[in-house]
Each structure stands twice: as C-alpha cells, then as structure tokens.
Write a structure and sequence with these properties.
This protein has about 270 residues and is of the alpha+beta class. It has six helices and ten strands. The model has no long low-confidence stretch (mean pLDDT about 85).
C-alpha cells in the first residue's frame, strides 16, 4: 500500500482548497436599462387609457347625481307624491331653497351630531361632483341661501336662479325676489333647466352664493336683473363640457349650455302665479 507523503498531502489539500469557478448572478446594467425602458413604454401606453376610464367614470357618476336630484325634485314638487318638505308643509307651494336643504340634509333636515359638520366633498352624496374635491362645512341653523354650505369654491351644483327668484316688473323698474314654487314646473315640459355644474371659485371671487345661477337672455328689455351676466358661472369641468339636469328628469352634457346655443331650452320659465 502506497504511503502518502507530507508533500503529496499538502498538494492534495491545496488542490481541494482551490475555488471552483462561480456562476454569474443578477442582471447587467444594460439588461436593467432595457427592462426599465420596456416598463416605461408599457406605462405610457396604458396610462392614457386608465385616465380616460377614470374621466368617464367621474362623468357618469356626476350624471347619475344630477338625475337623482331631478327625480327627487319631481317628488318634492308634486303635492300628492311629495315627501318630507320640512317647514314648507304639505301644501301646493314650496321654496326651492327648502328642496336644496333637503338634499344637503341641513336646517330642519339635519341628521348629524352637533350644529356644524366638517368633512369631504364626497360626504355630500348626490350634491357632490367627483371632479370637485376638498373640504366642506355644513351649518344646520341657517337656511341654504344664507351660506349654509361652504366654502363656495367646493360647491358642485347650482340651481336655475329664475326658478327661485323670478324677475318682476314693478312700475318702471325690474326686480327679482324669492318666491314659492308650485307643481306648474312639472307641467311646463321637460326642457326647463333645473340644476347644473357650477364654478364655485368664480362665484366666490364675485362674492355670490353659488347655489343659484342664471344666464343672460337675448333680445330682452334692458334693465332685467340677471342680464348683466354677473350671476352666470357654469363649469365646464367634464373635458370642456357642462352637465345639466332638467325638471323633466333628463340630463345632458354640452360644451355650451347658454340660451343662444340651446334656444329650445326654457331658461325663461318663471313660476309666477
């Protein structure tokens, strides 16, 4: 039997200790750059589609809100089918302001703790457009027309001011003042504008409550209260378009909701008895 010398043993141990070639792991810088570029390209292709879907979703939600407002108004205005009218009772006349209070759940319709509520615009339910974001405050001890909902820039919808405060001529002077409404608006046909997207920021800059708005009407006798355009501030926040609900329940989306662009809409309707 051959004996292993110390020299052979040393060589054998050294041979065993010799490291084996190691396999390369991970990515090279070039590979990482290629993968990153592919991901960036995919994101750039997908992002516009996702953004478009989100816009359509917000627009649809806003449309459903306005449709719900129009439906609730029809129920509120009907003397037979009308639900809770708060201080207006169950007679044939009601204030448009009271209807808004029922939608915001303020004043006599208050169902929250305390007398002041601070929250997100989304907490307003159907009275909030998804494209309007921010904080809102609600007061339960003052009527809507006195500024119960604010800040004004975060209010989503305005109502047709001529429905709330018709234009009246007293002697030689034109004036406008709040008047009670009746179910006549439900009998007037479906194209009477009721509520629409409004620009609360513009109303705030003009120091006007944003809950009501009315456009100037063409070919009219000078001196009418709303024909200077100061109370007209619709918002085109849906890709340059404004959504509007009519008393008949229909909701439309248009790049221009002015009377000149839509002569068939009854902006001039006033519930004067």
């Amino acid at each position: 039997m051959r004996r292993v010398s110390s020299r052979d043993s040393s060589q054998t141990i050294e041979g065993r200790r010799k490291p084996l070639p190691r396999r390369r792991c991970g990515f090279t810088l070039i590979e990482l750059l290629v993968v990153t570029s592919i991901i960036a390209i995919l994101i750039s292709l997908i992002a516009p589609g996702i953004g478009a879907v989100r816009k359509r979703s917000r627009k649809f939600k806003c449309k459903m809100n306005l449709r719900s407002i129009a439906f609730d108004f029809a129920m509120f205005a009907d003397p037979v089918l009308g639900g809770e009218r708060g201080d207006d009772g169950d007679g044939s006349l009601f204030w448009l302001d009271t209807f808004q209070e029922s939608q915001y759940r303020i004043d006599e319709f208050w169902d929250r703790q305390g007398v002041l509520f601070n929250g997100d615009v989304a907490d307003l339910g159907v009275m909030s457009c998804p494209n309007v974001q921010g904080e809102v405050s609600l007061h339960n001890n003052i009527p809507c027309r006195s500024g119960a909902v604010g800040p004004y820039r975060n209010v989503s919808y305005g109502f047709n001011l001529r429905l709330d405060s018709p234009e009246l001529k007293i002697g030689e002077m034109w004036t406008a003042r709040p008047r009670r409404m009746s179910a006549r608006i439900l009998e007037a046909g479906g194209m009477v504008p009721l509520a629409f997207d409004i620009d609360g920021t513009t109303a705030e800059k003009r120091d006007i409550i944003p809950y009501y708005s009315a456009p100037p009407l063409p070919d009219r006798e000078p001196g009418r209260p709303y024909d200077d355009g100061n109370v007209w501030f619709p918002s085109s926040r849906h890709s340059g378009k404004t959504q509007i609900a009519f008393a008949g329940g229909e909701v439309m989306c248009s790049p221009d909701i002015s009377p000149e662009a839509n002569p068939e809409w009854r902006w001039d309707f006033q519930d004067i008895r």
